[in-house]
Design brief:
The structure holds two protein chains of two kinds. Helix content of chain A is about 65%, strand content about 5%. Chain A is α/β, with parallel strands linked by helices. Chain A folds into three domains: about 1-155, P-loop containing nucleotide triphosphate hydrolases (Rossmann fold, 3-Layer(aba) Sandwich); about 170-255, Helix Hairpins (Orthogonal Bundle), CATH 1.10.287.1770; about 275-480 and about 495-635, no CATH class. The longest helix of chain B is centred in the first third of the chain and has 24 residues, at about 65-85. The chains are: A alpha/beta, B alpha+beta.
Chain lengths: ~650, ~250
């Protein structure tokens, strides 16, 4: 099992060991991704598990809870602690905790290339001797040291380390008293359990109430005694003690013997990305090249055109239509598959030809940004602004993901710390963040009219900020704090980016294709029973009120099923010339703000509760049309020509 | 404003009353709870000075008494902070000495010590330090020894002295990331967020969190700076630590 802090290169090592045979899945009951794979080392087949990044065994976030559970429940034959060479002093405290846990342990000092650039060299033998554990030094991204690692993994399990951190007397005595009260099987050494209890780790407390219910009261008393008369929790003193030891070891095992190499392009870029003015310019560049050009033009323009018009338009649709019409003499039934809203002619076509390539392009770009280390810097830049709308900089991740797929982003809001943040982020995702399929269509359409584009961008961002600001005032709760490690900028690893993009695409494909099919079926039923027509008739007045033609009403109804479905429908209508100029902008703005798609709605209900989801929908629906109405009013009365 | 000095025993009683009122929420304190030497003499003195009211069972502070008591507690806890953080005496010894140390501090010096220590919000045991005028003004001086991370300018280096842990999880995470008392850091950027160098890595925190991390300054003392306007100090914050464009502090 691979364990380590974020940004130490665990996934690179994982990919190197397991090659193509890896599965990314959610740990049961969580949204935390765990990678499992198989590695062939020598003539032995190993099962490898990559745990989520963690700074300490004490679990503050869901990620860290999962890592703790993996350690205690899965009982790996070997735990490999991967550390960042140049920050050895900061990484060793976790090594100590793992030693205390008594698991079979080895240490991989990774990213030694960056350490060398900083003028630091590693002495793995010294470290191995001090810790009593096998230690290898690697630079996994460059393939350095991987053979040594494989040799280590293929060999015998390492002996237990005799290393021990001595904590202050009061803590040590509390530990031994607690250990005496524990009798259950916790998967890790009792000393470690006692230490976790003293640090008030919630997962461990929960396990103790299950395995040793009788002792809970006594343990609580001991812990409270230890906490008395301290300004800080017990964990504070423990961290200080660990850091002292870690510092001592690091000064022996990590030696500065050279001046750091001159700053190179990556460092300069990294520093610039954090500069407020340059950072914003960089963000604009990323949005322009990444989103607008790559996703919008390349994705929507080239890929979609090709797939939609050439593949489906010329070949698939006619062939399939002919086939079904021949096989099924009943027009109503054939209609289900190949009619105007048919499963194949519409549902599959939208899924494969329009939505999937766009989302794929987006995920590719997102993975690139993620891997390069840009996202934490962006989070830092926007933190202050986000605080005004009730979020913290960390929320930049789900918000940006929402530009790819709002449903996925809504799931990711789980990582936000406070309930208030989660609610506000969910609301904003539902209201003002267009997903990439929608974006691709919208950007593709509006790119022909730069003024229209500017209006759209302005109105949507304005709504985003304003409603966020209002939500921040109305939703009770405390503000989240922001703290984030900023990793060095790195060249994205092609393999990592590819693997992540593929994994996300797979998830997305498995989700949308059934829904598009379902949507087609529902529309078919709706048409047969005339419910669909009735619904369209109901929508027509609202649509007309904002200055759009009747045919746009259908598009909005489609928007209930998938927002991208709806936007794509307007794409179709526009191609036919029915919507352009001011009505086009109004349509785009309204459909962007429109209620979330059915999948997102379901996820919202699951994550935030049904009442919250319905409330969000109920607020958004009139709001979207309201904004559309106002915009139409303003533009027409100003006689704007587009 | 008092013209005559209070005796030590009177000050001790006032301090006890303040703790009882402020921390346990009881305005009146039962006589039995005040078990100091010469208690009755002290109470007599305080009654005479109009600092307490006394009835059969309980004693309580008057308005004037509250202000005076807050000042006493403030001096005592600041003294504790001074002895722990700067003179490194260790918690128990600092507590013992602080009691005596405090009686020697005259009013007025406490503001200077508070500024020197970067306006700490709590004593080493976690008890709150009543704020003074200097805290409200955010005063800084050239001789500041300990400062909150939020008040450092880009380029200043220091060693983390302590973390004022208002939020347990946050403190835990900061410690786990390596921001442990005794670790050397350097301020890199102050706007739009506070970024500091921690060994070979960089960590970003928001202003509220930066106000909870107290640092003992070791290098590049800044000149006193005016309190930051609400949007931060964009021009000061743009200097970078490795000084490609640094103009020095």
């Amino acid at each position: 099992m691979l364990v380590g802090s974020p940004n130490v290169g665990k996934s690179v090592i994982f990919n190197d060991l397991t090659g193509r045979y890896a599965v990314v899945s959610n740990y049961p009951g969580t949204t935390v991704e765990v990678c499992r794979g198989q590695a062939r080392v020598g003539d032995v087949l190993l099962e490898v598990v990559d745990s989520p990044g963690t700074y300490s065994l004490v679990a503050v976030s869901e990620d860290e809870q999962v890592t703790q559970r993996l350690l205690t429940e899965e009982r790996a034959d070997l735990v490999l602690h991967v550390v960042d060479a140049k920050s050895l002093g900061r990484m060793l405290p976790l090594t100590f905790q793992l030693i205390e846990a008594g698991v079979p342990l080895a240490v991989d000092v990774n990213i030694i290339d960056e350490a060398e650039r900083a003028g630091l060299s590693v002495e793995p033998e010294v470290l191995a001797e001090e810790l009593g554990l096998p230690v290898v030094a690697t630079a996994a991204a460059r393939g350095v040291g991987m053979d040594r690692l494989r040799a280590l993994l293929g060999g015998e399990p390492p002996p237990r380390s005799g290393f021990r951190v001595q904590y202050p007397e009061a803590i040590e005595s509390a530990v031994s008293r607690i250990v005496d009260l524990l009798s259950g099987d916790y998967g890790i050494a009792r000393r470690a359990v006692a230490l976790l209890l003293l640090q008030r780790d919630p997962s461990t407390w929960e396990r103790v109430t299950r395995f040793d219910p009788g002792s809970v009261v006594n343990i609580e008393r001991i812990v409270m005694e230890a906490e008395a008369k301290r300004g800080n929790p017990v964990g504070y003193a423990m961290a200080v003690a660990r850091q002292k030891e870690a510092g001592r070891l690091a000064s022996r095992a990590l030696i500065r013997n050279r001046r750091p190499v001159r700053r190179d392009f990556r460092e300069v870029l990294g520093a610039l990305a954090m500069h407020p003015l340059v950072g914003i310019a960089l963000l604009a560049a990323v949005l322009y090249f990444g989103l607008y050009l790559f996703v919008g033009r390349l994705g929507a323009g080239v890929a979609v055109d090709f797939l939609d018009e050439q593949v489906f338009g010329r070949h698939v649709n006619p062939a399939v239509t002919a086939f079904f019409n021949r096989m099924l003499p009943w027009p109503a039934l054939a209609d289900l598959f190949v009619g105007e809203y048919g499963v194949i002619t519409l549902g599959l076509r939208y899924a494969l030809a329009i939505v999937l390539p766009l989302v794929g392009a987006f995920f590719l770009m997102f993975s690139l940004l993620e891997d390069s280390g840009y996202l934490p810097r962006l989070a830092m830049l926007v933190d202050r602004l986000f605080k005004r709308i009730g979020l913290s900089g960390r929320a930049v991740i789900p918000i940006v993901l929402g530009l790819g797929c709002d449903t996925m982003a809504t799931l990711v809001t789980r990582v936000l710390e406070t309930r208030r943040e989660r609610i506000i982020a969910t609301f904003l995702l539902a209201l003002a963040i267009p997903c990439s399929a929608q974006l691709g269509v919208i950007l593709g359409l509006l790119s022909l009219h730069p003024a229209a584009m500017a209006i759209w961008v302005g109105v949507v961002s304005g709504v985003f900020l304003l409603s966020g600001f209002l939500a921040a005032k109305l939703v009770p709760g405390e503000t989240a704090r922001f703290y984030l490690e900023i990793p060095p900028m790195r060249w994205p690893s092609a393999r990592n980016v590819g693997a992540k993009t593929l994994a996300r695409l797979k998830w997305y494909g498995a989700e949308i294709i059934p829904i598009f099919v379902l949507a087609s079926v529902l529309i078919w039923i709706g048409r047969l029973t005339h419910v669909f027509q009735a619904a369209v008739a109901v929508m027509r007045p609202a649509v007309n009120a904002i200055g759009l033609p009747d045919s746009a009403a259908e598009a909005f109804l489609f928007g209930f099923f998938r927002r991208d479905y709806g936007a794509a429908r307007i794409f179709d209508i526009h191609g036919g010339g029915a919507v352009s100029g001011v009505p086009l902008v109004v349509a785009m703005v309204t459909i962007t703000l429109f209620v979330p798609c059915i999948a997102q709605f379901l996820v919202m209900a699951k994550e935030r509760g049904l009442r919250a989801a319905v409330a969000v929908g109920a607020i958004i629906l009139p709001f979207a049309f309201g904004v559309g109405y106002l915009l139409n009013l303003v533009l027409t009365s100003l006689h704007v020509r587009l | 404003m008092r013209e005559e000095e209070l005796s030590e025993r009177a000050e001790e009683v006032l301090a006890r009353l303040w703790v009882a009122k402020d921390e346990r929420g009881e305005a009146a304190c039962p006589l039995s709870e005040i078990a100091t030497e010469d208690r009755d003499a002290a109470l007599a003195e305080l009654l005479e000075s109009g600092l307490v009211d006394q009835d059969a069972e309980t004693v309580s502070l008057t308005r004037a008494g509250q202000t005076e008591a807050a000042s006493i507690v403030r001096r005592e806890r600041l003294a504790e902070r001074l002895l722990t953080d700067v003179l490194d005496l260790g918690e128990t010894r600092a507590a013992e000495e602080a009691c005596k140390f405090e009686h020697l501090l005259r009013r007025g010096i406490d503001d200077e010590i508070c500024t020197l220590l970067g306006h700490p919000k709590a004593c080493p045991h976690g008890s709150p330090i009543p704020p003074g005028e200097c805290c409200r003004a955010g005063a800084r001086s050239a001789g500041t020894v300990i400062s909150a991370l939020a008040d450092l300018t880009a380029g200043q280096t220091g060693v983390i002295a302590y973390i004022h842990g208002r939020r347990r999880q946050l403190t835990q995470r900061l410690l786990a990331m390596g921001a442990v008392p005794g670790t050397a850091i350097a301020a890199v950027q102050t706007s739009p967020a506070h970024v500091f160098q921690l060994g070979e890595a960089q960590v970003a925190v928001d202003r509220e969190t930066a106000q909870d991390i107290y640092v003992r300054i070791t290098g590049k003392q800044g000149a006193p700076a005016p309190p930051a306007p609400w949007f931060g100090r964009p021009f000061r914050g743009l200097r970078f630590r490795r000084g490609r464009r640094g103009r020095g502090s």
